[in-house]
Design brief:
There is one protein chain. This protein has a single domain, classed as 3-Layer(aba) Sandwich (Rossmann fold), CATH 3.40.50. The protein starts with a helix and ends with a strand. Helix 1 packs parallel to helix 4. The model has no long low-confidence stretch (mean pLDDT about 90). Helices cover about 45% and strands about 20% of the residues. With about 260 residues, it is α/β, with parallel strands linked by helices. The protein has a seven-stranded mixed β-sheet with strand order 3-2-1-4-5-7-6, with helices on both faces.
């Protein structure tokens, strides 16, 4: 049964995804994908994408050969995600449901992906218990959340305090250490970390300085220097600095057994 809280949340997210659908933006970030593929080959896996949003991640999993079920509480989100799957010519099963009460059998999946939903729950253990329930022993979970020490957290809190935050009136964030502890408490074994997204814009611009050269349409520095610049940033992103300054942090973890 859907309660009044679910209905209000669904309506709010319907309005959000309706606005997003007009932009044509499809979210399918590279960093979670790279971290996941470093741990497991997704081809042939039964994969569950929670809070699928625009369906970009679900479509990417399906294109790589996974058998994908995509879940969202918002019917409008599912319409956008269905359009994404159709345009990319992949097959995805879509389900409108609450991620805390999934109408799915125990141990039905080899992989569960959650990019940006756990931080909406005051009790992350309730969410992770449901992830664990539908995941087979030895299966994989990719969990991402906002990163606590990013400057974006201050910006978000400022907007929330003024009632200007478009994603709701409450959410939280995690340091890499806190996210690891929450997953471990739920019985998962962290295998790989990643971080993504630069904020504010000057930080983003510094990271992608090479794009300025393309905009100018002429060579500013030798290609070898830009390659070294890129290697340096990639090293920072994968270490302590990236995990504690970028906007989002994620962990690929494994459920024991199997």
């Amino acid at each position: 049964m859907t309660d009044s809280k679910d209905i209000r949340a669904s309506a709010r997210w319907d309005a959000y995804w309706e606005a997003q659908s007009r932009t044509g933006f499809i979210s399918a970030p590279a960093e979670p994908w790279e971290a996941l593929c470093a741990c497991v080959d997704v081809c042939g896996l039964r994969a569950l994408d929670l809070a699928t949003g625009t369906g970009g991640t679900a479509a990417r999993l399906a294109a790589a050969g996974a058998h994908v079920t995509a879940v969202d509480l918002s019917p409008r989100s599912l319409q956008v995600a269905q359009d994404t799957a159709r345009r990319q010519s992949v097959t995805v099963r879509f389900l409108c449901a609450d991620v805390l009460r999934l109408p799915l059998p125990d141990q039905a999946f080899d992989l569960v992906v959650s990019l940006g939903v756990m931080h909406y729950f005051r009790s992350p253990q309730s969410f992770l218990a449901e992830v664990s329930r539908v995941l087979r022993p030895g299966g994989w979970a990719l969990i991402e959340a906002p990163q606590k020490y990013s400057p974006f957290t201050l910006y978000k809190r400022w907007r929330m305090a003024r009632g200007m935050w478009e994603y709701g009136d409450w959410e939280t964030e995690y340091s890499p250490e806190e996210l690891r502890a929450v997953l471990a408490q739920a019985g998962f074994v962290p295998r790989r970390y990643y971080a993504r997204e630069y904020f504010p814009y000057p930080y983003h611009a510094l990271r992608h300085l090479a794009r300025l050269e393309r905009k100018l349409g002429r060579r500013v520095l030798p290609a070898s220097l830009w390659q070294a610049y890129e290697r340096c940033w990639r090293r920072l992103e994968r270490g302590w600095w990236g995990l504690h300054t970028l906007r989002d942090v994620g962990i690929v973890a494994q459920k024991p057994g199997g």
